[in-house]
Amino acid sequence: MASRTAISRGILRRSSTFGVRSVASWWKNVDPAPKDPILGVTEAFLADPSPDKVNVGVGAYRDDNGKPVVLECVREAESKIAGNLNMEYLPMGGSMKMVEETLKLAYGENSDLIKEKRIAAVQALSGTGACRLFADFQKRFHPDSQIYIPVPTWANHHNIWRDAQVPQRTFHYYHPESKGLDFASLMDDVKNAPSGSFFLLHACAHNPTGVDPSEEQWREISYQFKVNGHFAFFDMAYQGFASGDPERDAKSIRIFLEDGHLIGCAQSYAKNMGLYGQRVGCLSVLCEDETQAVVVKSQLQQIARPMYSNPPVHGALIVSTILSDPDLKNLWLKEVKVMADRIIGMRTALRENIEKLGSSLSWEHITNQIGMFCYSGLTPEQVDRLTNEFHIYLTRNGRISMAGVTTGNVGYLANAIHEVSQSA
Amino acid sequence: MRPRFPLATHVSPTDRRLSALVRHLGDSSASSMESQNPNQTISASSTAAFNGDSVFGNIVRAPEDPILGVTVAYNKDPSPTKLNLGVGAYRTEEGKPLVLNVVRRAEQLIVNDRSRVKEYLPIIGLTDFNKLSAKLIFGTDSPAIQENRVTTVQCLSGTGSLRVGAEFLARHYHQRLIYIPQPTWGNHPKIFTVAGLSVKTYRYYDPKTRGLNFQGLLEDLSSAPSGAIVLLHACAHNPTGVDPTIEQWKQIRQLMRSKGLLPFFDSAYQGFASGSLDADAQPVRMFVADGGECLAAQSYAKNMGLYGERVGALSIVCKTEDVASRVESQLKLVIRPMYSSPPIHGASIVATILKDKDMYNEWTVELKAMADRIISMRQQLFDALRARGTPGDWSHIIKQIGMFTFTGLNTEQVAFMTKEYHIYMTSDGRISMAGLSSRTVPLLADAIHAAATRVV
């Protein structure tokens, strides 16, 4: 008894002589991190005082006035939800209602795979969260595997699989000379990858190039995947946004499903429902049978639990309210088509405007490419000129977010592109 | 001589793929034959067919989460008198979940504001929310805030804040060892381990007194290596409800600073423990006041009832403004590959409430009402057990604080109460006081009495 109090008194006597202010920071050796290449563009844009400034950086949709859009179907859903429900924890796997509706979009409204409960699926934090859950899952259960990532791809894909500690390899995708798909090299890479490799595929509207395989090319890719026993992981962030028709945009996935692949899929509602900041998405893994799907889902939940416990409810409620109400769903489909059509219109306008200026270069890739982004083919130096001389903001890989192009700025943008590309 | 292909009446997808390949790769005579007769195909050999096994076929089913699994079991129980004292979510006297009035008001404002958009938040979240959250926990006049030495990033509730902080420490801090109290919230060790830290425990709960093992705590922290991280529950310790007194906190602080131990606070119940936001933040503010560094994870799940919206914040108090800025840039690199940016809805609600004086006051009143109801349940349960003459000392029920009571019941007794009385709690004997009402206290008292007398 006496000895114990003597110990604690001794501890306190020693400690009271230490002043905390003399201790240096634990973090003085922390280096400043580089700015995110994509999100840093918007930061720079916001800081620019020029009245002519144009933001074609981040892939967030804008209307023809350059304003962000909240879809009407979302507003209606939100007023239905607000004030009606509680904010209790969702299960670890998220809103089952939202997940069910989301699977129908990817796998088909009447998909047997859904009826047979063969799909392990959890709500995820938009596309990023879905990819990260899968990357962590891949690492945990195939620790020796790698991920094949297309060149180029969304920059954050590299970060995600790196932080999941899955080694990365690349496969050919974009063909700079034609500004289209390097199909022959892609197929070579698929054939030469060791059997059973994991591949990341963009289901539609490839980010950043806007270059998608044709339906026939997808069929061949699928066939070769079968021959090699590869695993296909689809990142589908733009369903509905590419062609305006969600069914059509899911074609690549449906082809793989027809061919019997057991795929993985990340889906996001950030763009096609304009729910960016709500962080709503879904990760699904197609399994052999219901039993296996239950097992895989339980393991996906184990990855979510020490990351965020359970996903946010609000955005999921918006999605499930819209998709389970036929009128709201129809409204959504109309609004998605309007967004996609505006972008397709801007592609045509931008190309025509540049051509009218008498450019000697080919700009048909602007209308050949699809989705939110156009891989302009401009060099980093030309991009810097666009920014410094014309106050036009885009990522240095020359990726233009077509959603940021309006009838108001397309002429200015065309002129600037023509200017900097003449001195190639 | 032209090759003749067998006519197939059924064209499988595989066959179509092979035909497509032939068209691409075959010679011109074959191609022209194909185009003349679309019914001609090449059949696939059986080895080309895909009956693939799943690459994940060897995975076994993960065990149910012990805490969330309680609610799963409760939901399956058909008994009309079942009682869920598992998950720590607040319930009203009527046993219903509660959305605070002030939260509803804030939500309506947000939804009806047509100028609001749903754009991506910055990686570190809503700026207003971050500033106001820092002020809430550190105090509006905190010198650390005034000196711009605090970086605050919005995260997904307490879990997300802890995970981001842990990932940051694993990458940038020189010590990989974190000490967590014994016992602690079941998810703590998983979060730290998966982030890459090593976990050790320090003594905390004394089963004999059902209070704090203060000697054990001081001894264990004294023997920790210099620089080790120490997880501290800011108030309303989960699962025990046992908190150090202010005097004991002072001693803990002195010891930790003398050994250069890094405090990592988990503040999930600010305002919920005593009913006072400032009182519940005292331990954290004490550490910040001495000028040293620390981490603090905040959650609005319970104190604003925003559970499913996943609202929280991680703050790192640094020595200088420059360090805080560099630290913030590195936190972004942790967040971006995890989920890019946090969800906007819950944080908007919090910011709306915290920045409006009337709404803030309304919140404090509703928060106090929740805390008072829980304190009243503690008293009622204690009185009920005393009235029944239940063997043992049950004063810990009113000494412990916050949402949970560590009853001291063993796993057999817990199983007995679930089987015979349909009362659900975690197997460590932790009950959520928030799940009790005046109506159900007698039932629980009966069950505890039965367990204490019949099951030993």
Description:
The complex is a heterodimer of chains A (424) and B (456). Chain A has 424 residues and is an alpha/beta fold. Chain A folds into 2 domains: 37-70 and 340-422, Aspartate Aminotransferase, domain 1 (Alpha-Beta Complex), CATH 3.90.1150.10; 90-324, Aspartate Aminotransferase, domain 2, CATH 3.40.640. Chain A is 47% helix and 12% strand. Chain A contains 17 helices and 13 strands. Chain A has helices at 2-15, 39-47, 72-81, 96-107, 112-115, 126-141, 155-163, 183-192, 215-228, 246-249, 251-258, 290-308, 313-323, 326-356, 365-368, 380-390, 410-422, and strands spanning 54-55, 119-124, 147-151, 168-172, 174-175, 180-181, 198-202, 231-236, 264-268, 281-286, 373-375, 392-393, 399-401. In chain A, the strands form 4 sheets. In chain A, strands 2-10-9-8-7-3-4 form a 7-stranded mixed β-sheet. A two-stranded parallel ribbon of chain A has the order 1-12. A two-stranded antiparallel sheet of chain A has the order 5-6. In chain A, helix 8 runs parallel beside helix 9 and helix 16 crosses helix 17. The longest helix of chain A has 31 residues, at 326-356. The radius of gyration of chain A is 25 Å and the shape is globular. Chain A starts with a helix and ends with a helix. Residues 5-19 of chain A have low confidence and may be disordered. With 456 residues, chain B is α/β, with parallel strands linked by helices. Chain B has 2 domains: 68-98 and 365-454, Alpha-Beta Complex (Aspartate Aminotransferase, domain 1); 120-355, Type I PLP-dependent aspartate aminotransferase-like (Major domain) (Aspartate Aminotransferase, domain 2, 3-Layer(aba) Sandwich). Helices cover 46% and strands 12% of the residues of chain B. Chain B is built from 18 helices and 13 strands. Chain B has helices at 13-25, 28-36, 68-76, 101-112, 127-138, 143-146, 157-172, 187-195, 214-222, 246-259, 277-280, 282-289, 321-339, 344-355, 357-388, 396-399, 411-421, 441-454, and strands at 83-84, 150-155, 177-182, 198-203, 205-206, 211-212, 229-233, 262-267, 294-299, 312-317, 404-406, 423-424, 430-432. In chain B, the strands form 4 sheets. In chain B, strands 2-10-9-8-7-3-4 form a 7-stranded mixed β-sheet, sandwiched between helices. A two-stranded parallel sheet of chain B has the order 1-12. In chain B, strands 5-6 form a two-stranded antiparallel ribbon. In chain B, strand 7, helix 10 (246-259) and strand 8 form a beta-alpha-beta unit. In chain B, helix 7 packs parallel to helix 8 (187-195) and helix 14 packs across helix 15. Residues 1-11 and 18-51 of chain B have low confidence and may be disordered. Classes of the chains: A alpha/beta (424), B alpha/beta (456). At the A-B interface, helix 1, helix 3, helix 6, helix 7 and helix 9 of A face helix 1, helix 4, helix 7, helix 8 and helix 9 of B. Chain A: This is Aspartate aminotransferase. Chain A: Keywords: Aminotransferase, Pyridoxal phosphate, Transferase. Chain A: Pfam families: Aminotran_1_2 (PF00155). Chain A: Homodimer. Chain A: Its EC number is 2.6.1.1. Chain B: Residues 81-448 form the Aminotransferase class I/classII large domain.
